[in-house]
Amino acid sequence: MKRLITLVAIAIFAATSLCSAQENLNDIRFKDWTEKEWLDNDYIRELRRYIDSCSMGKVADQTLLAHKEILDSKFIMGHIEPAIYGGVFIYFTFLDAPRKVFYAQVYSYVNPDTKEVDNYEVRGVFLNDEEMDYTREDLLFIVENYPEHKLW
Question: Count of CB atoms within 10 A of residue 137's CB?
């Protein structure tokens, strides 16, 4: 029993240390970001590159390949938020499939010594279970009237 308690304590300490380290790395990643940076950044650009690579057959992402007919379409980002274990979650909708909501986890590597962020990597793309009640025209209206939200 004493050994079990010790192992649990070590696991809690390790998990707490890992979360604290990631929190500090996210502080580096997103320090002083403005609304503009949240709406236009290298995480979104990496997602677009990833989708294009999948469309060209260079990446075999099963979720995206199931929707190959829309991959060349532009997408609009609906929401972006930091992921506790690094990088961001991006929720997005393709212009040619406005009812479907996808989300992706895009990671970035951080050098804690130099505080530089680089090597962005899409870790997964998923299709949300719920659909939105949007049309292509609705998405174009958003882009036209709120230019900070653009098509990627």
Answer: 9
More confident residue, 86 or 125: 125
Whether residue 55 lies inside any domain: the answer is yes
Task: Please count the other Cβ atoms lying within 10 Å of the Cβ belonging to residue 109.
Answer: 14
pLDDT per position as a tens digit, 28-46: 899 999 999 999 999 999 9
- The partner residues of 106 in beta bridges, in order of sequence, read 88, 122
Containing structural domain, residue 100 = 2-145
**Interval 90-138: pLDDT, tens:** 999 999 999 999 999 999 999 888 889 989 999 999 999 999 999 999 9
Which helix (H) or strand (E) segment holds residue 108: the answer is strand 102-111
Domains of the chain: total? 1
- 9 domain residue, yes or no: yes
Contact 121, 104 (CB under 8 A): no
